[in-house]
Amino acid sequence: MKIPVRFIASRTAFYLFTAFAAITINFFLPRMMAGDPVTAYMQRNAGQITPEAERSLRILFGLDENTSVWDQYTSYWGLLFSGDLGRSFSNGLAPVGEVISSALPWTLGLVGIATIVSFLLGTATGALIGWRRGSKADVIVPISTFFSTVPYFWLGLIAIAVFSSTLGWFPASHAYDKGASPELTADFIGQVIAHGALPAITIVIASLGGWILGMRNMMLTVLDEDYITVAQAKGMPNRRVLWNYAARNAMLPQLSSFALSIGFIVGGTIVMEMVFSYPGIGKLLLDATNAKDYPLMQGVFLIITMAVLCANILADVAYAILDPRTRQTEA
C-alpha cells in the first residue's frame, strides 16, 4: 500500500494550521474572561499582598499592564517551545506540567478504557444486529438508546444509590481509599479498580447506544451494496463477508467519531468526575476555571487540543489504509 505524498502534505499542512489556530485561541480565550488570577488571589488574601508582590505576580503570569498583548503572545509561544507551561496559581505556584501529569493518568485510565470498551462492544454489537436485521436482536437498539438519552448526571447518581449505597458493591467516590497513598502494590491497584469500576460502567452504558445505532444503520446501507451480493454469490463464509467486507466498510464513519472520543478522553468527563469526586483532568479544568488560573487553563486546553489533533491524524491514517478511495481523492 502506497500513500501519495500529496495526501500526506495536505493533511500535514491542515493540522499544522489547525494547531496554530488552536494555540492562538488558547492564549486569548482566558484573557477574554472577566477578572484575572492575581485579582482573584488578592480578593482571597485581602491585605496580605503588597503592591510590589502584586506586580511580581502579574509579571510572572504574563499579565503586566506595561507589556503589550503582542509581547505576551510571543512570550507565550517562546515558553511553549521551551516546554514551559507556566506555574499554577491555584496549586501553590507548582509547574503546570506537574499538576497536569498528576491528574492525567486517572482520566486516561478510567475514561480511556471505558471509551475503548464502549466503542469495541458497541461497534461489534451494531454489526451483528445489522447483519441479522429483522431478528429479535433489534430490541437491543431502543434499550441502549434509552440509556444514552438519560443525562449522565442522573445515571451516575442512580448507580451510586443502587450499587453503592444500597447494595454496597462499589465505593461511591474518589479514586482510592481515604488515607491510602499511591503506590504500585496489589492492594492499591485493587482499590483503584474497585473505585473506578462504577464510573467506568456508567460511561459504557451511557455511550453504548450511539455506537450500536450508528454501526447498525451503516450496516443496513452496506449490505445492499453489490460487492456484498457478489461475495455471497461466490460462496464465501458468512463470517468472512460480515467482518472482512460489510463491517470493514460500515465502520469507516465510526472512526471519525471514535477519533474525537479518543481526543476528548484527555479532557475527561467533567460531570462524571464531579459526581464521583474523581481526581481527573475534567475536575482539574473546572477548578482552574473557577480560580481563573490562566496558566493551568491554558495547559489543560493545550493538552486536550493536541490530543484531539493526534486522534484525528490517526483517524486519517486509518481511513487511508482501510479505504483506498480516500487516498485517490486527496491525490
UniProtKB/TrEMBL annotation:
Source organism, top-level taxon: Bacteria
Membrane topology: Multi-pass membrane protein
InterPro entries named among the record's database cross-references: MetI-like (IPR000515), MetI-like_sf (IPR035906)
Membrane spanning residue stretches: 12-29, 106-131, 152-172, 192-213, 258-279, 299-322
GO cellular component: plasma membrane
GO biological process terms on file: transmembrane transport
Segments forming domain ABC transmembrane type-1: 104-315
Cell compartment(s), UniProt: Cell membrane; Membrane
Predominant cellular place of this UniProt entry's protein: membrane
Keyword flag Transferase: no
Keywords: Membrane, Transmembrane, Transmembrane helix, Transport
Pfam families (UniProt xref): BPD_transp_1 (PF00528)
Entry's family note: Belongs to the binding-protein-dependent transport system permease family.
Protein's name according to its UniProt entry: Peptide ABC transporter permease
